[in-house]
Amino acid sequence: MTRPRPSIGTIIGLLALAFGVVIVVTLPFWTSEFRESQFAQVAVYFMAILSLNLLTGYTGQISLGQGAFLMIGGYTAAMLVVHSGWTGTQKLLTIPAAAGMAFVTGAIIGIPALRLRGLHVALTTFALALALPQLVAKFHHFTGGPNGQQLPFTEIPTNEYQYRMSWIVAGICFLIVWLVLRGRTGRAFRSIRDSEVAAVSSGVSLPIYKIIAFGISAAIAGAAGAVGALDTNNVSPQNYSLNLSILILVGAAIGGLGSLWGMWLGAIILEFLPLWAQDTPGLGGQAPQVVQGIALILIMFLLPGGFAGLIRQAVLFIARYRTPTAPEPAPATPPVGRV
Amino acid sequence: MELLDRIRPTGKTHEGAPPKPRKRRMRSPIELPMLLLLIGYFGFLLIGSIVSSSFGQQTVSGLSAGAAYGSLGLAIVLIYRATEVLNFAQGEMAMFSVFVCYQFNVLWGWNYWASFALTLLISFVGGFVIQRVVIRPVENANILTIVIVTIGLFFLFGGLALRIWGGVPVAFRTPLGADATQHVTIGDIVVAKSDIVTIVVALGVVFLLWLLFQFTKVGLAMRASALRPAAARLVGIRVSWMYALGWGLAAFLGALAGLLIVPPGLETTFMQPILLYAFAAAVLGGLESPIGAIVGGLVLGSMLNLLSAYIDWIGNVLRLPVALVVLLIVLLVRPAGLFGHETVEKV
Predict the structure, then answer these.
(1) What is the pTM of this model?
(2) Residues in chain B within 8 Å Cβ distance of A288
(3) In the prediction, which pLDDT does A6 show?
(4) Rounded to an integer, what is the distance from CA B69 to the centroid of its chain?
(5) What is the mean pLDDT of residues B13-34?
């Protein structure tokens, strides 16, 4: 038998994936209408975290402005619906259009990032997230200005439709990212993250792969923005403030940067922590920010790999227990800690 | 190594007569082309102000705003050059300090200047403690971890302020109080007193910092810690404490900047745009140079003000995007900024 037995990690991963798919598909049957729209929002956060993870967790380019790409996607979709009259089923076409628009923007942002390193990329994207909402105010005739733009009321989708659409798009994005990361491109990304010098010496082209990383990441964030805009039926600069970019970072850190398996948890926490905090007496409505800030710091102290890092350690522990004689697979580089 | 020799000269104990400081050649903090550029720019401002009084007024109020950006940028530079950390929470920390002062002065009715002094003291201690408690555990981690921790601080302070003082704008005075509306006339130019105070304080602060770094033992130790941490440790400097001192100073400066520029309606988010300007100012100055941050701030502030006054298309709305563009251009064309050298040097 030459065919290698799949490792325990792969099996657990596939099982978890199957379990996740089953949960997502069957969720509408055992929750309320209202919950469905909340879980649709979870899908948006999921995609946003996915995009940040690709860029920061796998490629090592710190982005503090992922919300800007969501904004570009959201506004592209909304403007296509409002000004170009893409309604009905055409609405769905705004999602790839938004992704394409964001892809181009991301690639353009990626070009200066070629010359910038580490903190400078973080600084640039941070500035982008702060500055971009001003452009909406500037071109208010087209964008609807600082108070936002309502999409036509004629065809507000049902919650279930929202839910299914959001998760189908999220699933496609996840598949794309997974395919990108498992092959040559993914290895190139990781090599850039671990050492740019080593990556170049091994023949990885920094310009090409950095631009690809920025482009794909922005495209997925753009798709997330478009889905969010179609779900909530409006866009507004307040929805894409700096806080959103930081929230996405919080979610990614909770889920675990550099791994795909914990992001659902980050997305769920982002959506439900504020609601939970509101319902909890004594915390008041303002607490989530405080809790999230503390959570972010504590995670960096205690669990730099996030939830996924915890899972990985557990899997390694089980694997060691099952095959005590087999050489232990080298643990994947913890994403946060050795970039 | 020269620095370290001065702290404890080789071959002697540090008792007895202090060693004669070696004559050092002062290295110019700025390279010639950049100096010419700056002279040209400020010459343009000066001539413009002489020709047109409205231009002069825009320039002065821009310089005043720029002095505030520069002061916050100075705080960012202090931390960056010691530990190569960009503190994304600097603005929110300053905002929090301002609200602490508001609490003392307005809500508890204390004397303004007592509140002012106490706030600055609390900010200094607070910055020191934050470094010890929050930053030190990740001191040796990679950039991403530290960035995320400062972002966590950003959220923490923003959330705390929102929780304590609410989201409704409040009225709070600037240090000048009722005098803030008074004006001084220089030639044809009418200048608000508060503008002059801001500029003078910013320049004064950077001068004091220069004195601190250049002529005191603590300043020398801080420079040594930034330049050669390992060697500094060997000669007995508590490097980590020097970093904490840097954080304390930075928080102090941030609080000072915040208190100088309290807007009419004080909100918990008022520092967020200013933080971007401060970053742009610091980068323009080269991210390593205190004087660079102030000069960068002055250049940026006056430029933004003139652009938004004279180009209608930019107006007030596009100030932030323009700052972003400035930031990008500097990072792309000359990452060392106005006051940097090609070889990184920590003065």
Answers:
(1) 0.84
(2) 159
(3) 65
(4) 7
(5) 62
